[in-house]
Amino acid sequence: MTRAFFIVGPTATGKSQLAADVARESGAEIVSADAFQIYRGLDLLTAKPEASTFAKAPHHLIGTVPLSEEMNAEKYRRLATSIIEKINSRGKLAVIVGGSGLYIKALTHGLAPLPESDSKLREKLNALTLTELRSRLCEFDPDTSEKIDAKNRRRIVRALEICLLLGKPASKVVAGLGESGLAEPTIPSTGVFVFRHREELYQRINQRVEIMFESGVIEEVRNAGVTSATASQMIGLRDIRRLLVGTMSCTQCIAEIQQATRRYAKRQLTWFRRQTNFLPLNLSSLTHNEAVKWISLRILSESGTRDD
Question: What is the pTM of this model?
Answer without folding.
Answer: 0.81
